[in-house]
């Protein structure tokens, strides 16, 4: 059983990479955005960054779902921004079967991708706040760091190879 948390700023490709990994491995996909309250979604649509107080219930809901899957012996991939260490502590904590995947890319690349996507509630105007909030994972978190400049398939291939190395 494995739990993979795919993290990064909005527009870094979390959903795309997480969905590709879930398909490749036959695991469940949890889209972190689907756990947001309607109030959180409305704030983001309006261009208002979320506060920690907005995020705590959202993160706890994801963690509860993760624990239920783990209790059932199911592996899953979670797409979640997890921008701060405190957020990742809720999602990963002391779960020995959890692995962090950090999608890293330049602000310009991510902005361009956000500007090109259609129908997403997160406006490119909030990208600066995402980078301001981001605390890159440290070595003690044992992240798999993925450069997002390549194709999504290349990123998924890289993560699959790294997961095999993580397991040994």
Number of domain modules: 1
Assembly classification:
single chain
Strand order of the largest sheet: 2-3-1-4-5
CATH class: Alpha Beta
The backbone outline, from C-alpha atoms, is globular
Describe the structure.
This protein is an alpha/beta fold and 168 residues long. It has a single domain, classed as Rossmann fold. It is 48% helix and 14% strand. The protein is built from 7 helices and 5 strands, in the order E-H-E-H-H-E-H-E-H-H-E-H. The model has no long low-confidence stretch (mean pLDDT 91).
Summarize the SSE layout with pairings.
Elements lengths: L2 E5 L6 H12 L2 E4 L6 H8 L6 H20 L4 E4 L5 H7 L6 E7 L2 H10 L10 H7 L10 E4 L4 H16 L1
Parallel strand pairs: 1-3, 1-4, 2-3, 4-5
Describe, in short, the structure shown:
The chain is of the alpha/beta class. Helix content is 48%, strand content 14%. Helix 1 (14-25) packs across helix 7.
Highlighted features:
single chain, 168 residues, alpha/beta, Rossmann fold, 7 helices, globular
């Amino acid at each position: 059983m494995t739990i993979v948390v795919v993290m990064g700023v909005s527009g870094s490709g979390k959903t795309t990479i997480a969905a590709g990994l879930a398909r490749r491995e036959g695991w469940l996909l949890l889209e972190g955005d689907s756990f947001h309250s309607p109030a959180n979604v409305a704030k983001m649509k309006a261009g208002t960054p979320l506060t920690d107080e907005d995020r705590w219930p959202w993160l706890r809901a994801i963690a509860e779902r993760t624990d239920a899957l783990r209790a059932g012996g199911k592996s899953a991939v979670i797409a979640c921004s997890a921008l701060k260490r405190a957020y990742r502590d809720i999602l990963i904590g002391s779960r020995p079967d959890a692995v962090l995947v950090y999608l890293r890319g330049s602000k310009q690349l991510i902005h361009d991708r956000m500007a090109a996507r259609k129908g997403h509630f997160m406006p490119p105007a909030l990208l600066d706040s995402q980078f301001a909030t981001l605390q890159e994972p440290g070595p003690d978190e044992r992240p798999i760091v993925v450069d997002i400049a390549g194709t999504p398939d290349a990123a998924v291939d890289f993560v699959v190879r790294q997961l095999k190395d993580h397991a040994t």
